[in-house]
């Protein structure tokens, strides 16, 4: 292999891509990732998953706070890289950085572009009730996820997919696309096609947005719950306590939205009802409905708000 690669990525989603690029024999000259951030109960500074993996593999790592500083881009240019492979890096790259590698920067994005450009494409696809998404590698350009597509693989969204499950599946599908993309680039056969269709933006998820609106149909609430599982978690209130709902099944039922139809967590929605199967009380771990009800009875006629 002759390509000299720079890798830019941060979360667990990006680790399989870096692993696949290395396993395919490409030289990764440097990894860029976000700086260590406070994490866990002790808020200890923690290196990103990509940072930790790169160190295990003996790859030099840089963690600039911003690519807006000229000296950061100077260092990138000095590498003489052929291409940068970018996967959920978490920073906007200025044009000079995009132009630094010989063949520019390629980005793996988890949606059917131009649908769900932006920060939360996996969550938004499930929340919207989409039955299909994709992994796409694009030639990065100025603008948010606007570049031409060089490789695409469609992925079905299954009826019981959560954001966590779909993230994991997409991370491995996307990782497998890098060797084909880099091989095509190496032989001069990489073809880019413009994005077509209506652009939709996957805005970041806010905590207030995660609140469940029980007046919506059960199917829409189910999409909402699964799209926010595991983070930040869809939530509702019962007797003034915030309860996270992680999984549910749609069942027949009719009552005032938010009202329980039995003592086993069947909750009326704007249309039909949801049987809650996995949930979480404040300060408690996630648990199934049976275990939850052993510690907190929820009799028929209780109201979730």
Which structural class do the helices and strands define?
Answer: alpha/beta
What is the CATH architecture assignment of the largest domain? 3-Layer(aba) Sandwich
Number of DSSP strands? 16
Helix share, percent: 25-40%
With helices defined by DSSP (H or I, 4 residues minimum), what is the helix count?
8
State the order of secondary-structure elements, H for helix, E for strand: EHEEEHEHEHEEHEEHEHEEEEEH
Beta-strand content:
25-35%
* Domains (count): 2
The CATH homologous superfamily of the largest domain? Formyl transferase, N-terminal domain
Order of neighbouring strands in the sheet with most strands: 5-2-1-6-7-9-10
Oligomer: single chain
CATH class of the largest domain: Alpha Beta
How confident is the prediction overall: mean pLDDT? 97
How far is the first residue's CA from the last residue's CA? 59 Å
Radius of gyration: 22 Å
Largest sheet: 7 strands, mixed
Low-confidence stretches: none
Report the principal-axis shape: elongated
Named CATH topology of the largest domain: Rossmann fold
Give a description of the structure.
The chain is α/β, with parallel strands linked by helices and 305 residues long. It has two domains: 4-201, Formyl transferase, N-terminal domain (Rossmann fold), CATH 3.40.50; 218-295, Formyl transferase, C-terminal domain (Methionyl-tRNA Fmet Formyltransferase, Chain A, domain 2), CATH 3.10.25.10. 26% of the residues lie in helices and 26% in strands. The protein is built from eight helices and 16 strands. The chain has helices at residues 15-23, 49-56, 70-78, 95-99, 121-127, 163-186, 218-227, 289-295; strands at residues 4-9, 27-32, 37-39, 44-46, 61-62, 83-87, 105-109, 117-118, 132-139, 149-156, 201-202, 234-238, 241-251, 266-268, 273-280, 287-288. The strands form four sheets. Strands 5-2-1-6-7-9-10 form a seven-stranded mixed β-sheet. Strands 12, 13, 14, 15 and 16 form a five-stranded antiparallel β-sheet that branches. A hairpin with a 2-residue loop joins strand 12 and strand 13. Helix 1 (15-23) runs parallel beside helix 6 and helix 5 (121-127) packs antiparallel against helix 7. The longest helix is centred in the middle third of the chain and has 24 residues, at 163-186. The chain is elongated. The relative contact order is 0.11.
């Amino acid at each position: 292999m002759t390509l000299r690669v720079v890798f830019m990525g941060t979360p667990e989603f990006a680790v399989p891509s870096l692993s696949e690029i290395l396993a395919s024999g490409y030289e990764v000259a440097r990894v860029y990732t976000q700086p260590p951030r406070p994490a866990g109960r002790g808020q200890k500074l923690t290196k990103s998953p990509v940072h930790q993996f790169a160190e295990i593999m003996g790859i030099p790592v840089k963690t600039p706070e911003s690519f807006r500083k000229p000296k950061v881009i100077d260092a990138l240019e000095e590498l003489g890289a052929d291409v940068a492979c970018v996967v959920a890096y978490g920073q906007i790259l200025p044009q000079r950085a995009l132009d630094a590698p010989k063949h520019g920067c390629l980005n793996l994005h988890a949606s059917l572009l131009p649908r769900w450009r932006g920060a939360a494409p996996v969550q938004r696809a499930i929340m919207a009730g989409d039955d299909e998404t994709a992994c796409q590698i694009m030639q990065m350009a100025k603008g948010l996820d606007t570049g031409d597509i060089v490789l695409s693989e469609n992925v079905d969204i299954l009826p019981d997919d959560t954001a966590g499950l779909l993230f994991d599946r997409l991370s491995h599908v996307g990782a497998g696309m890098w060797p084909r993309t880099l091989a095509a680039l190496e032989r001069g056969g990489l073809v880019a096609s413009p994005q077509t269709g209506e652009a939709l933006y996957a805005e970041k998820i806010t905590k207030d947005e995660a609140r469940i609106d029980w007046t919506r149909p059960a199917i829409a609430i189910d999409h909402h719950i699964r799209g926010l599982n595991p983070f930040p978690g869809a939530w509702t209130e019962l007797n003034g306590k915030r309860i996270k709902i992680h999984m549910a099944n749609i069942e027949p039922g009719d009552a005032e939205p938010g009202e329980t139809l039995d003592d086993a967590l069947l909750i009326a929605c704007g249309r039909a009802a949801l049987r809650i199967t996995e949930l979480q009380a404040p300060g408690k771990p996630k648990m199934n409905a049976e275990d939850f009800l052993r510690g907190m009875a929820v009799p028929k006629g209780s109201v979730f708000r």
